[in-house]
Write a structure and sequence with these properties.
Helix content: 25-40%
Largest sheet: 7 strands, mixed
Order of helices and strands: EHHEHEHEHEHEEEHHEEHEEHEH
CATH superfamily of the largest domain: Type I PLP-dependent aspartate aminotransferase-like (Major domain)
Strand order of the largest sheet: 2-8-7-6-5-3-4
Strand content: 5-15%
Number of strands: 13
Radius of gyration: 21 Å
CATH class of the largest domain: Alpha Beta
Distance between the termini: 20 Å
CATH topology of the largest domain: Aspartate Aminotransferase, domain 2
Structural class: alpha/beta
Number of helices: 11
Number of domains: 2
């Protein structure tokens, strides 16, 4: 099997992560904050260390890290945790995932907010010059942007967008699910929240994700339940992570993340992804029937490439690659409803998405190219 669906989840994981998951199941399967015995304290220390490692990636403090089970849950915690009023303006890029858009559309139904797309040039994929005019006319409550498109691999101009937003007092939410820990340019500058997903760019397992609340913006709890402390209080605790983290923490997944963060420090993932992306682009560009979806400057993309083959739907290409060549790619709309109007891919029922990780090789790309040449 050749696995090229790493934007969905990175696979395989580093061996250190597999060993950590096994060790955690055998040695750390205890509840943190629910006991004063030695093992419960060990587990609590691992969780604290993991928060510290995550926050250090953007030079924040550990108490800003909130854990969740997925980045979808993390985004819901933020979106439903904010205070909303009728007429609030929310800006989103055309590259956003349904983990952002569906919760926002639910808020729109409940509170009659306005959801406005940030205008991007369809050739350069830069933000249009009239974006600031929009912000002036319709002052932003929030701006949501992905750090990297899960469909095209495009690295959005986050600094430019968020800096403009801050001029008009926007709350800026960065969905870094595709690149946190890999993209070293991600920073706390002009961001208020940064979302991470353990099973994607952090090379950990499913079951652990969260966000960094950089400026400690107050959020209403999204989940309610036990926190292991202040148990006679029928309200959620007012301070710290316990205000938002109800229920037993997934120490197995957290310990896997704890070890993957160590591994990431010793491997230049982004350099490998850029090398493979350029090799893929150069190779696939020679196939006449292939249509790629890229900005005029391809250096703005990394790790992910979407394409279609003339005469086939995206799903048909994916089925052929799977059944005849045992190559795993993602096809369809990739949970991103806006992007396909932007890149004009609906006539193919979406795109064929190739997404690479540290463990892929040029040989994997060669096998893909050979398969596509048979179509």
């Amino acid at each position: 099997m050749i696995y090229l669906d790493n934007a969905a989840t990175t696979y395989p994981k580093p061996e250190e992560v597999y060993l950590a998951l096994d060790k955690a199941n055998r040695e750390y399967g205890f509840n943190s904050g629910r006991g004063s015995y030695k093992k419960a304290k060990e587990v609590a220390n691992i969780i604290d260390e993991t928060r510290n490692e995550l926050s250090s990636l953007v030079e924040c403090t550990a108490n800003t890290v909130i854990f969740s089970t997925s980045s979808t849950e993390a985004l819901n915690m933020i979106i439903f945790g904010l205070d909303w009023a009728k007429g609030d303006n929310v800006y989103v890029s055309p590259f956003e995932h349904n983990s952002v858009l569906r919760p926002l559309y639910e808020i729109k139904k409940r509170h009659d907010i306005n959801i406005i797309q940030i205008p991007f040039n369809k050739e350069t994929w830069n933000i249009d010059s009239n974006f600031e005019d929009l912000l002036i006319l319709n002052k932003p409550k929030c701006i949501f942007c992905s750090s990297k498109s899960n469909t095209t691999g495009y690295n959005l101009p986050i600094n430019e967008i968020f800096k403009l937003g801050k001029k008009y007092n926007s709350i800026n939410i960065l969905d870094a699910s595709q690149s946190f820990g890999v993209d070293k340019t991600i920073s706390k500058n002009n961001s208020d929240f940064i979302i991470f997903a353990g099973h994607k760019s952090l090379y950990a397992s499913f079951g652990i994700a969260g966000f960094i609340n950089i400026n400690n913006i107050e959020l209403k709890p999204f989940l309610f339940g036990g926190t292991g402390s202040d148990s006679l209080n029928l309200e959620m605790p007012l301070n710290g992570a316990s205000h938002l983290e109800a229920g037993s923490k997934n120490i197995i997944a957290i310990y896997g993340l704890h070890e993957s963060l160590k591994w990431l420090k010793n491997h230049n993932i982004e350099e490998k992804e850029r090398t493979l992306f350029k090799y893929l682009y150069q190779s696939i560009s020679s196939i006449k029937k292939v249509i790629t979806y890229l900005p005029s400057n391809i250096d703005k993309c990394c790790g992910i490439l979407s394409f279609n083959v003339d005469g086939y739907t995206a799903e048909e290409v994916g089925d052929i690659l799977n059944q005849e060549f045992d190559i795993c790619v993602r096809t369809g709309y990739h949970c991103c409803p806006y992007i396909h109007d932007f890149i004009n891919s609906k006539k193919f029922n979406g795109t064929v998405r190739v997404s690479m990780n540290y463990f892929n090789t040029e040989k994997d790309i060669d096998c893909l190219i050979n398969a596509l040449n048979t179509l």
